[in-house]
Amino acid sequence: MGTHTWKHETAQARLKKSIESVEDVTVVDYVKDTSLENIPKTKAYRMDAVHMYADILNLDAMLESTAFEGTQCHQRTLRFLDLHFRAVHRILRATDARKVDFHNQRLHTFIAKPYNSEANAEAKRIRKAVSIGQLIIDVLAETGDSDELIENAKVRIGIDSGKALAVNNGRRSNREPLFLGQPANLAAKMSAGPAVGIYLTNNARVAIGLAKVDDEKGTALTSAEIEACQAAADIGVSKDYIVSEWKKDLEATPIGTFEFSGHTPPLSKLDIAALSPANSRRQELASIYADIDGFTAYVADHVDDNAEDVVRTLAVVREELDHVLTSDFEGRRIRFIGDCIHGLMCEGTAQTTDTVATISDAALCVGALRSSFELALEMLQEEAVETGSLGLAIGFEYGPTATTRLGMKGSRTRCSVSRAVRASEKRQLVCDGTQSAIGEVAYKSASEGVRKLFGANRITSNLDYAEVVEALAASKDATARAAKTEAFAPSLPAIAKSSNIDVRPHMRAIDPHRHD
To answer: How much is the CA Rg of the chain, to the nearest whole Å?
Structure first.
Protein backbone atom coordinates (compact mmCIF):
# COMPACT_ATOMS: atom_id res chain seq x y z
CA MET A 1 0.00 0.00 0.00
CA GLY A 2 1.48 3.33 -1.06
CA THR A 3 1.37 6.58 0.83
CA HIS A 4 -0.57 9.41 -0.76
CA THR A 5 -0.20 13.03 0.17
CA TRP A 6 -0.95 16.56 -1.01
CA LYS A 7 1.75 19.23 -0.97
CA HIS A 8 1.13 22.96 -1.31
CA GLU A 9 4.31 23.50 -3.30
CA THR A 10 3.47 20.76 -5.80
CA ALA A 11 -0.06 22.05 -6.34
CA GLN A 12 1.20 25.62 -6.63
CA ALA A 13 3.69 24.65 -9.34
CA ARG A 14 1.03 22.73 -11.27
CA LEU A 15 -1.42 25.60 -11.04
CA LYS A 16 1.15 28.13 -12.21
CA LYS A 17 1.64 26.14 -15.43
CA SER A 18 -2.07 25.60 -15.83
CA ILE A 19 -2.88 29.30 -15.48
CA GLU A 20 -0.15 30.22 -17.95
CA SER A 21 -1.60 27.74 -20.46
CA VAL A 22 -4.94 29.59 -20.60
CA GLU A 23 -3.57 33.14 -20.65
CA ASP A 24 -4.88 33.72 -24.19
CA VAL A 25 -8.51 32.58 -24.46
CA THR A 26 -10.78 33.17 -27.46
CA VAL A 27 -14.59 33.14 -27.23
CA VAL A 28 -16.52 33.36 -30.51
CA ASP A 29 -20.12 32.96 -31.60
CA TYR A 30 -20.96 29.55 -32.96
CA VAL A 31 -21.17 29.44 -36.76
CA LYS A 32 -23.37 27.02 -38.69
CA ASP A 33 -22.03 23.44 -38.84
CA THR A 34 -18.83 24.24 -36.91
CA SER A 35 -17.39 21.03 -35.48
CA LEU A 36 -17.44 20.80 -31.69
CA GLU A 37 -14.99 17.90 -31.63
CA ASN A 38 -11.63 18.59 -30.00
CA ILE A 39 -12.29 22.21 -29.09
CA PRO A 40 -8.94 23.72 -28.06
CA LYS A 41 -8.43 24.29 -24.36
CA THR A 42 -8.21 28.04 -24.95
CA LYS A 43 -11.34 28.40 -27.08
CA ALA A 44 -15.09 28.46 -26.48
CA TYR A 45 -18.19 28.98 -28.59
CA ARG A 46 -21.27 30.96 -27.58
CA MET A 47 -24.16 28.89 -28.83
CA ASP A 48 -27.94 29.16 -28.87
CA ALA A 49 -29.45 25.70 -28.56
CA VAL A 50 -32.04 23.60 -26.80
CA HIS A 51 -30.71 21.34 -24.05
CA MET A 52 -32.47 18.17 -23.02
CA TYR A 53 -31.79 15.80 -20.14
CA ALA A 54 -33.35 12.34 -19.96
CA ASP A 55 -33.19 10.65 -16.55
CA ILE A 56 -33.95 6.95 -16.11
CA LEU A 57 -35.85 6.96 -12.83
CA ASN A 58 -35.70 3.25 -12.00
CA LEU A 59 -31.92 2.75 -11.97
CA ASP A 60 -31.90 2.56 -8.17
CA ALA A 61 -34.60 -0.12 -8.32
CA MET A 62 -32.31 -2.24 -10.50
CA LEU A 63 -29.35 -1.76 -8.16
CA GLU A 64 -31.54 -2.67 -5.20
CA SER A 65 -33.27 -5.62 -6.89
CA THR A 66 -31.38 -7.99 -4.58
CA ALA A 67 -30.84 -7.77 -0.84
CA PHE A 68 -27.07 -8.22 -1.18
CA GLU A 69 -25.13 -6.10 -3.67
CA GLY A 70 -23.43 -8.93 -5.50
CA THR A 71 -22.66 -9.59 -9.14
CA GLN A 72 -26.25 -10.38 -10.06
CA CYS A 73 -27.65 -6.91 -9.44
CA HIS A 74 -24.59 -5.30 -11.08
CA GLN A 75 -24.90 -7.52 -14.16
CA ARG A 76 -28.61 -6.79 -14.32
CA THR A 77 -28.09 -3.03 -13.95
CA LEU A 78 -25.36 -2.89 -16.58
CA ARG A 79 -27.46 -4.89 -19.02
CA PHE A 80 -30.40 -2.58 -18.24
CA LEU A 81 -28.28 0.46 -19.14
CA ASP A 82 -26.67 -1.15 -22.19
CA LEU A 83 -30.04 -2.04 -23.71
CA HIS A 84 -31.22 1.52 -23.31
CA PHE A 85 -27.93 3.14 -24.40
CA ARG A 86 -28.20 1.28 -27.71
CA ALA A 87 -31.77 2.40 -28.29
CA VAL A 88 -31.05 6.05 -27.44
CA HIS A 89 -27.97 6.01 -29.67
CA ARG A 90 -30.22 5.12 -32.61
CA ILE A 91 -32.75 7.80 -31.73
CA LEU A 92 -30.16 10.58 -31.57
CA ARG A 93 -28.50 9.50 -34.80
CA ALA A 94 -31.86 9.36 -36.62
CA THR A 95 -33.02 12.79 -35.40
CA ASP A 96 -29.80 14.81 -35.79
CA ALA A 97 -29.62 15.45 -32.05
CA ARG A 98 -26.18 15.54 -30.45
CA LYS A 99 -25.19 13.55 -27.38
CA VAL A 100 -23.15 15.56 -24.89
CA ASP A 101 -22.88 12.91 -22.20
CA PHE A 102 -24.50 9.69 -21.02
CA HIS A 103 -23.59 9.39 -17.36
CA ASN A 104 -25.15 6.18 -16.07
CA GLN A 105 -28.88 6.93 -15.91
CA ARG A 106 -28.65 10.51 -17.20
CA LEU A 107 -28.45 11.59 -20.84
CA HIS A 108 -27.58 15.15 -21.88
CA THR A 109 -28.18 16.09 -25.49
CA PHE A 110 -28.60 19.33 -27.41
CA ILE A 111 -30.49 20.38 -30.53
CA ALA A 112 -28.84 23.18 -32.52
CA LYS A 113 -30.85 22.95 -35.75
CA PRO A 114 -32.59 24.83 -37.22
CA TYR A 115 -30.10 27.66 -36.76
CA ASN A 116 -31.13 31.18 -35.82
CA SER A 117 -30.99 32.30 -39.44
CA GLU A 118 -34.30 30.47 -39.92
CA ALA A 119 -37.58 32.07 -38.82
CA ASN A 120 -38.89 30.93 -35.42
CA ALA A 121 -35.80 28.76 -35.01
CA GLU A 122 -35.91 28.55 -31.21
CA ALA A 123 -39.54 27.39 -31.13
CA LYS A 124 -38.80 24.81 -33.81
CA ARG A 125 -35.84 23.48 -31.82
CA ILE A 126 -37.92 23.19 -28.65
CA ARG A 127 -40.74 21.35 -30.42
CA LYS A 128 -38.17 19.03 -31.95
CA ALA A 129 -36.67 18.37 -28.51
CA VAL A 130 -40.12 17.57 -27.10
CA SER A 131 -40.71 15.12 -29.97
CA ILE A 132 -37.34 13.44 -29.42
CA GLY A 133 -37.97 13.29 -25.68
CA GLN A 134 -41.32 11.56 -26.20
CA LEU A 135 -39.69 9.14 -28.64
CA ILE A 136 -37.12 8.24 -25.99
CA ILE A 137 -39.90 7.66 -23.45
CA ASP A 138 -41.89 5.49 -25.87
CA VAL A 139 -38.93 3.44 -27.12
CA LEU A 140 -37.43 2.80 -23.67
CA ALA A 141 -40.83 1.57 -22.53
CA GLU A 142 -40.21 -1.45 -24.80
CA THR A 143 -36.49 -2.13 -24.48
CA GLY A 144 -36.34 -4.22 -21.34
CA ASP A 145 -35.63 -7.94 -21.22
CA SER A 146 -38.13 -10.10 -19.34
CA ASP A 147 -35.90 -13.18 -19.66
CA GLU A 148 -33.16 -11.40 -17.71
CA LEU A 149 -35.59 -9.63 -15.35
CA ILE A 150 -34.62 -6.30 -16.93
CA GLU A 151 -37.32 -3.67 -16.52
CA ASN A 152 -38.37 -1.18 -19.17
CA ALA A 153 -36.95 2.24 -18.35
CA LYS A 154 -39.11 4.90 -16.76
CA VAL A 155 -37.94 8.23 -18.14
CA ARG A 156 -38.29 11.89 -17.18
CA ILE A 157 -37.31 14.60 -19.66
CA GLY A 158 -36.16 18.14 -18.80
CA ILE A 159 -35.81 20.87 -21.45
CA ASP A 160 -34.57 24.46 -21.55
CA SER A 161 -33.36 26.78 -24.29
CA GLY A 162 -30.84 29.58 -24.48
CA LYS A 163 -27.24 30.66 -24.79
CA ALA A 164 -24.40 28.58 -23.33
CA LEU A 165 -20.64 28.23 -23.77
CA ALA A 166 -19.35 25.14 -25.56
CA VAL A 167 -15.87 24.16 -24.36
CA ASN A 168 -13.72 21.06 -24.31
CA ASN A 169 -14.70 18.43 -21.76
CA GLY A 170 -12.02 15.96 -20.81
CA ARG A 171 -8.34 15.42 -21.33
CA ARG A 172 -6.21 13.54 -23.84
CA SER A 173 -8.28 10.91 -25.71
CA ASN A 174 -11.46 11.42 -23.69
CA ARG A 175 -12.55 14.71 -25.27
CA GLU A 176 -16.11 15.79 -25.99
CA PRO A 177 -18.04 19.08 -25.89
CA LEU A 178 -19.25 20.50 -22.60
CA PHE A 179 -21.86 23.22 -22.27
CA LEU A 180 -21.59 25.81 -19.55
CA GLY A 181 -24.54 27.94 -18.64
CA GLN A 182 -28.12 28.18 -17.56
CA PRO A 183 -29.97 26.17 -20.26
CA ALA A 184 -27.94 23.02 -19.65
CA ASN A 185 -28.16 23.35 -15.88
CA LEU A 186 -31.88 24.13 -15.80
CA ALA A 187 -32.68 21.27 -18.16
CA ALA A 188 -30.84 18.96 -15.76
CA LYS A 189 -32.83 20.31 -12.81
CA MET A 190 -36.11 19.85 -14.69
CA SER A 191 -35.24 16.19 -15.32
CA ALA A 192 -34.59 15.57 -11.61
CA GLY A 193 -37.84 14.47 -10.02
CA PRO A 194 -39.93 11.42 -9.13
CA ALA A 195 -42.52 11.51 -11.93
CA VAL A 196 -42.18 10.51 -15.58
CA GLY A 197 -43.07 12.94 -18.35
CA ILE A 198 -41.67 15.95 -20.21
CA TYR A 199 -40.97 19.10 -18.19
CA LEU A 200 -40.14 22.49 -19.72
CA THR A 201 -38.85 25.61 -18.03
CA ASN A 202 -41.14 28.63 -18.28
CA ASN A 203 -38.60 30.11 -20.66
CA ALA A 204 -39.07 27.17 -23.05
CA ARG A 205 -42.83 27.07 -22.52
CA VAL A 206 -43.25 30.72 -23.51
CA ALA A 207 -41.05 30.22 -26.59
CA ILE A 208 -43.56 27.71 -28.00
CA GLY A 209 -46.62 29.69 -27.02
CA LEU A 210 -47.53 27.99 -23.75
CA ALA A 211 -48.43 29.84 -20.58
CA LYS A 212 -46.04 30.08 -17.64
CA VAL A 213 -46.77 27.83 -14.67
CA ASP A 214 -46.16 28.32 -10.96
CA ASP A 215 -44.42 24.95 -10.55
CA GLU A 216 -42.23 24.13 -13.55
CA LYS A 217 -40.84 20.91 -12.06
CA GLY A 218 -44.31 19.76 -11.08
CA THR A 219 -46.07 20.51 -14.36
CA ALA A 220 -45.52 18.02 -17.18
CA LEU A 221 -46.62 18.74 -20.72
CA THR A 222 -50.06 17.36 -21.46
CA SER A 223 -50.66 14.74 -24.15
CA ALA A 224 -52.25 17.41 -26.34
CA GLU A 225 -49.25 19.74 -25.94
CA ILE A 226 -46.84 16.92 -26.83
CA GLU A 227 -48.91 15.90 -29.86
CA ALA A 228 -48.92 19.51 -31.09
CA CYS A 229 -45.11 19.59 -30.87
CA GLN A 230 -44.85 16.25 -32.69
CA ALA A 231 -47.09 17.45 -35.49
CA ALA A 232 -45.15 20.69 -35.91
CA ALA A 233 -41.68 19.09 -35.69
CA ASP A 234 -42.41 15.99 -37.82
CA ILE A 235 -39.07 14.35 -37.00
CA GLY A 236 -39.86 11.49 -39.38
CA VAL A 237 -38.85 8.65 -37.07
CA SER A 238 -41.27 6.26 -35.40
CA LYS A 239 -41.05 4.23 -32.24
CA ASP A 240 -41.66 1.02 -34.20
CA TYR A 241 -38.76 1.75 -36.56
CA ILE A 242 -36.29 2.42 -33.72
CA VAL A 243 -37.38 -0.69 -31.77
CA SER A 244 -37.10 -2.82 -34.92
CA GLU A 245 -33.58 -1.57 -35.67
CA TRP A 246 -32.62 -1.99 -32.00
CA LYS A 247 -33.71 -5.64 -32.12
CA LYS A 248 -31.71 -6.22 -35.30
CA ASP A 249 -28.64 -4.75 -33.63
CA LEU A 250 -29.04 -7.04 -30.61
CA GLU A 251 -29.31 -10.06 -32.89
CA ALA A 252 -26.22 -9.04 -34.88
CA THR A 253 -24.11 -7.98 -31.89
CA PRO A 254 -25.47 -9.44 -28.63
CA ILE A 255 -24.43 -7.74 -25.41
CA GLY A 256 -23.01 -10.94 -24.02
CA THR A 257 -22.32 -11.81 -20.40
CA PHE A 258 -20.76 -9.30 -18.04
CA GLU A 259 -17.59 -10.86 -16.66
CA PHE A 260 -15.90 -9.22 -13.66
CA SER A 261 -12.39 -9.21 -12.26
CA GLY A 262 -10.63 -6.92 -9.81
CA HIS A 263 -7.99 -4.35 -10.73
CA THR A 264 -4.76 -4.26 -8.78
CA PRO A 265 -4.46 -0.82 -7.16
CA PRO A 266 -3.69 1.91 -7.83
CA LEU A 267 -6.82 2.54 -9.87
CA SER A 268 -5.00 5.28 -11.78
CA LYS A 269 -3.50 2.46 -13.86
CA LEU A 270 -6.94 1.18 -14.92
CA ASP A 271 -7.24 1.30 -18.73
CA ILE A 272 -10.93 2.12 -19.16
CA ALA A 273 -10.62 2.13 -22.96
CA ALA A 274 -9.89 -1.62 -22.80
CA LEU A 275 -13.05 -2.45 -20.86
CA SER A 276 -16.10 -4.18 -22.33
CA PRO A 277 -18.95 -6.33 -20.97
CA ALA A 278 -16.72 -9.41 -21.14
CA ASN A 279 -13.81 -7.50 -19.55
CA SER A 280 -15.36 -5.50 -16.71
CA ARG A 281 -13.97 -4.61 -13.29
CA ARG A 282 -15.63 -5.00 -9.91
CA GLN A 283 -14.30 -4.50 -6.38
CA GLU A 284 -14.96 -2.64 -3.15
CA LEU A 285 -13.79 0.98 -3.38
CA ALA A 286 -14.57 4.59 -2.59
CA SER A 287 -16.57 6.75 -5.00
CA ILE A 288 -16.08 10.54 -4.86
CA TYR A 289 -18.09 13.37 -6.41
CA ALA A 290 -16.77 16.95 -6.28
CA ASP A 291 -18.97 19.65 -7.81
CA ILE A 292 -18.15 23.35 -8.33
CA ASP A 293 -20.93 25.13 -6.45
CA GLY A 294 -22.35 28.37 -7.87
CA PHE A 295 -20.91 27.80 -11.32
CA THR A 296 -24.16 28.19 -13.27
CA ALA A 297 -24.82 31.64 -11.81
CA TYR A 298 -21.17 32.54 -12.40
CA VAL A 299 -21.49 31.61 -16.10
CA ALA A 300 -24.78 33.51 -16.45
CA ASP A 301 -23.14 36.64 -15.02
CA HIS A 302 -20.20 36.50 -17.42
CA VAL A 303 -21.30 34.69 -20.59
CA ASP A 304 -21.68 37.94 -22.53
CA ASP A 305 -19.12 40.34 -21.06
CA ASN A 306 -16.30 38.18 -19.68
CA ALA A 307 -16.65 34.62 -20.95
CA GLU A 308 -12.88 34.32 -21.24
CA ASP A 309 -12.49 34.21 -17.46
CA VAL A 310 -15.17 31.51 -17.25
CA VAL A 311 -13.14 29.35 -19.62
CA ARG A 312 -9.93 30.05 -17.70
CA THR A 313 -11.44 29.27 -14.32
CA LEU A 314 -13.07 26.01 -15.36
CA ALA A 315 -10.00 24.75 -17.21
CA VAL A 316 -7.64 25.48 -14.33
CA VAL A 317 -9.88 24.22 -11.52
CA ARG A 318 -10.92 20.98 -13.21
CA GLU A 319 -7.40 20.16 -14.33
CA GLU A 320 -6.15 20.61 -10.77
CA LEU A 321 -8.95 18.52 -9.25
CA ASP A 322 -8.06 15.80 -11.74
CA HIS A 323 -4.38 16.00 -10.75
CA VAL A 324 -5.25 15.66 -7.06
CA LEU A 325 -7.40 12.61 -7.68
CA THR A 326 -5.21 10.81 -10.21
CA SER A 327 -1.66 11.98 -9.45
CA ASP A 328 -1.57 12.76 -5.73
CA PHE A 329 -3.90 9.96 -4.67
CA GLU A 330 -3.65 7.56 -7.62
CA GLY A 331 -7.41 7.34 -8.03
CA ARG A 332 -9.23 7.00 -11.35
CA ARG A 333 -11.32 9.74 -12.88
CA ILE A 334 -14.40 8.19 -14.43
CA ARG A 335 -15.53 11.40 -16.06
CA PHE A 336 -16.14 15.10 -15.84
CA ILE A 337 -19.88 15.77 -15.63
CA GLY A 338 -20.13 19.44 -16.46
CA ASP A 339 -18.42 21.24 -13.58
CA CYS A 340 -18.30 18.05 -11.48
CA ILE A 341 -15.66 15.33 -11.31
CA HIS A 342 -16.43 11.69 -10.46
CA GLY A 343 -13.60 9.41 -9.39
CA LEU A 344 -12.82 6.09 -7.71
CA MET A 345 -10.17 5.12 -5.14
CA CYS A 346 -9.00 1.78 -3.74
CA GLU A 347 -6.23 0.48 -1.47
CA GLY A 348 -5.31 -3.21 -1.20
CA THR A 349 -5.13 -5.86 -3.90
CA ALA A 350 -7.26 -6.94 -6.86
CA GLN A 351 -8.91 -9.53 -4.61
CA THR A 352 -8.90 -7.80 -1.24
CA THR A 353 -9.68 -4.17 -0.47
CA ASP A 354 -8.22 -2.56 2.64
CA THR A 355 -11.45 -0.95 3.77
CA VAL A 356 -10.16 1.34 6.52
CA ALA A 357 -7.15 2.52 4.51
CA THR A 358 -9.31 3.17 1.44
CA ILE A 359 -11.79 5.29 3.40
CA SER A 360 -9.02 7.19 5.20
CA ASP A 361 -7.28 7.77 1.88
CA ALA A 362 -10.56 9.05 0.42
CA ALA A 363 -10.97 11.44 3.36
CA LEU A 364 -7.45 12.76 2.76
CA CYS A 365 -8.25 13.17 -0.93
CA VAL A 366 -11.45 15.06 -0.08
CA GLY A 367 -9.41 17.48 2.03
CA ALA A 368 -6.80 17.81 -0.73
CA LEU A 369 -9.47 18.57 -3.33
CA ARG A 370 -10.68 21.50 -1.26
CA SER A 371 -7.14 22.75 -0.56
CA SER A 372 -6.28 22.69 -4.27
CA PHE A 373 -9.61 24.30 -5.18
CA GLU A 374 -9.05 27.19 -2.79
CA LEU A 375 -5.44 27.59 -3.94
CA ALA A 376 -6.58 27.62 -7.57
CA LEU A 377 -9.07 30.43 -6.94
CA GLU A 378 -6.47 32.39 -4.97
CA MET A 379 -3.90 32.12 -7.75
CA LEU A 380 -6.44 32.95 -10.47
CA GLN A 381 -7.51 36.06 -8.57
CA GLU A 382 -3.87 37.12 -8.25
CA GLU A 383 -3.78 37.10 -12.05
CA ALA A 384 -6.89 39.33 -12.15
CA VAL A 385 -9.18 36.51 -13.29
CA GLU A 386 -12.76 37.05 -12.11
CA THR A 387 -13.80 33.86 -10.28
CA GLY A 388 -17.09 34.96 -8.74
CA SER A 389 -18.32 33.28 -5.55
CA LEU A 390 -17.54 29.66 -6.26
CA GLY A 391 -17.41 26.80 -3.79
CA LEU A 392 -16.81 23.04 -3.84
CA ALA A 393 -19.37 20.46 -2.69
CA ILE A 394 -17.93 16.97 -2.08
CA GLY A 395 -19.53 13.62 -1.27
CA PHE A 396 -18.06 10.13 -1.00
CA GLU A 397 -19.20 6.60 -0.21
CA TYR A 398 -17.77 3.08 -0.08
CA GLY A 399 -18.97 -0.22 -1.52
CA PRO A 400 -18.69 -2.86 -4.26
CA THR A 401 -18.66 -1.11 -7.63
CA ALA A 402 -18.69 -2.29 -11.25
CA THR A 403 -16.86 -0.38 -13.99
CA THR A 404 -17.05 -1.04 -17.74
CA ARG A 405 -17.98 0.47 -21.11
CA LEU A 406 -21.46 0.15 -22.63
CA GLY A 407 -23.34 0.95 -25.80
CA MET A 408 -22.83 0.58 -29.54
CA LYS A 409 -19.53 -0.83 -30.74
CA GLY A 410 -17.33 2.06 -31.85
CA SER A 411 -19.23 4.46 -29.62
CA ARG A 412 -18.99 2.94 -26.17
CA THR A 413 -19.59 4.97 -23.01
CA ARG A 414 -17.63 4.51 -19.78
CA CYS A 415 -19.84 3.52 -16.90
CA SER A 416 -19.34 2.90 -13.19
CA VAL A 417 -22.39 1.79 -11.21
CA SER A 418 -23.17 0.76 -7.66
CA ARG A 419 -25.15 1.82 -4.65
CA ALA A 420 -21.99 3.58 -3.48
CA VAL A 421 -21.75 5.61 -6.70
CA ARG A 422 -25.37 6.71 -6.36
CA ALA A 423 -24.94 7.46 -2.65
CA SER A 424 -21.75 9.50 -3.18
CA GLU A 425 -23.57 11.69 -5.70
CA LYS A 426 -26.50 12.13 -3.32
CA ARG A 427 -24.14 13.06 -0.48
CA GLN A 428 -22.54 15.69 -2.71
CA LEU A 429 -25.95 17.11 -3.57
CA VAL A 430 -26.76 17.83 0.11
CA CYS A 431 -23.60 19.94 0.47
CA ASP A 432 -23.19 23.65 -0.07
CA GLY A 433 -19.96 25.07 -1.46
CA THR A 434 -18.09 24.75 1.85
CA GLN A 435 -19.18 21.24 2.85
CA SER A 436 -17.94 17.67 2.49
CA ALA A 437 -20.09 14.63 3.33
CA ILE A 438 -19.42 10.93 3.88
CA GLY A 439 -21.85 8.12 3.07
CA GLU A 440 -23.43 5.86 5.66
CA VAL A 441 -21.47 2.72 4.71
CA ALA A 442 -18.13 4.53 4.62
CA TYR A 443 -18.89 6.16 7.98
CA LYS A 444 -19.68 2.85 9.67
CA SER A 445 -16.61 1.15 8.17
CA ALA A 446 -14.14 4.00 8.76
CA SER A 447 -11.52 4.50 11.44
CA GLU A 448 -12.55 6.30 14.62
CA GLY A 449 -10.67 9.38 13.40
CA VAL A 450 -12.70 9.62 10.18
CA ARG A 451 -15.96 9.23 12.10
CA LYS A 452 -14.98 12.01 14.52
CA LEU A 453 -13.97 14.23 11.63
CA PHE A 454 -17.39 14.08 9.95
CA GLY A 455 -19.52 13.81 13.09
CA ALA A 456 -22.85 12.13 13.67
CA ASN A 457 -24.48 14.03 10.80
CA ARG A 458 -21.73 12.79 8.45
CA ILE A 459 -21.11 16.25 7.05
CA THR A 460 -18.57 18.95 7.87
CA SER A 461 -17.56 22.41 6.63
CA ASN A 462 -14.27 23.88 5.36
CA LEU A 463 -12.45 20.57 5.57
CA ASP A 464 -9.04 21.05 3.96
CA TYR A 465 -6.07 18.72 3.71
CA ALA A 466 -4.16 20.00 6.74
CA GLU A 467 -7.21 19.58 8.96
CA VAL A 468 -7.79 16.00 7.80
CA VAL A 469 -4.16 15.02 8.29
CA GLU A 470 -3.92 16.53 11.77
CA ALA A 471 -7.26 15.17 12.96
CA LEU A 472 -6.70 11.64 11.68
CA ALA A 473 -3.06 11.47 12.75
CA ALA A 474 -4.08 12.54 16.26
CA SER A 475 -6.54 9.64 16.29
CA LYS A 476 -3.71 7.27 15.39
CA ASP A 477 -5.14 6.63 11.92
CA ALA A 478 -2.37 4.66 10.18
CA THR A 479 -2.98 6.14 6.73
CA ALA A 480 -2.96 9.72 7.99
CA ARG A 481 0.13 9.18 10.15
CA ALA A 482 2.03 7.89 7.12
CA ALA A 483 0.81 10.81 5.00
CA LYS A 484 1.81 13.32 7.67
CA THR A 485 5.27 11.82 7.94
CA GLU A 486 5.79 12.00 4.19
CA ALA A 487 4.34 15.50 3.85
CA PHE A 488 6.33 17.07 6.65
CA ALA A 489 9.47 14.94 6.63
CA PRO A 490 10.23 14.22 2.94
CA SER A 491 13.81 13.35 3.79
CA LEU A 492 12.59 10.28 5.61
CA PRO A 493 10.73 8.29 2.93
CA ALA A 494 11.31 5.00 4.71
CA ILE A 495 9.48 6.26 7.79
CA ALA A 496 6.72 7.76 5.63
CA LYS A 497 6.00 4.41 4.09
CA SER A 498 6.01 2.40 7.30
CA SER A 499 3.66 1.94 10.21
CA ASN A 500 3.69 -0.23 13.28
CA ILE A 501 -0.08 -0.52 13.14
CA ASP A 502 -1.27 -3.72 11.53
CA VAL A 503 -4.20 -2.88 9.24
CA ARG A 504 -4.65 -6.40 7.90
CA PRO A 505 -7.78 -7.02 10.00
CA HIS A 506 -9.44 -4.31 7.87
CA MET A 507 -8.72 -6.07 4.57
CA ARG A 508 -11.96 -7.19 2.94
CA ALA A 509 -12.12 -9.58 0.03
CA ILE A 510 -14.79 -9.35 -2.62
CA ASP A 511 -15.31 -12.22 -5.00
CA PRO A 512 -16.00 -10.53 -8.37
CA HIS A 513 -18.00 -13.57 -9.45
CA ARG A 514 -20.13 -13.88 -6.33
CA HIS A 515 -23.87 -13.83 -6.99
CA ASP A 516 -26.49 -12.51 -4.64
So the answer is: 23
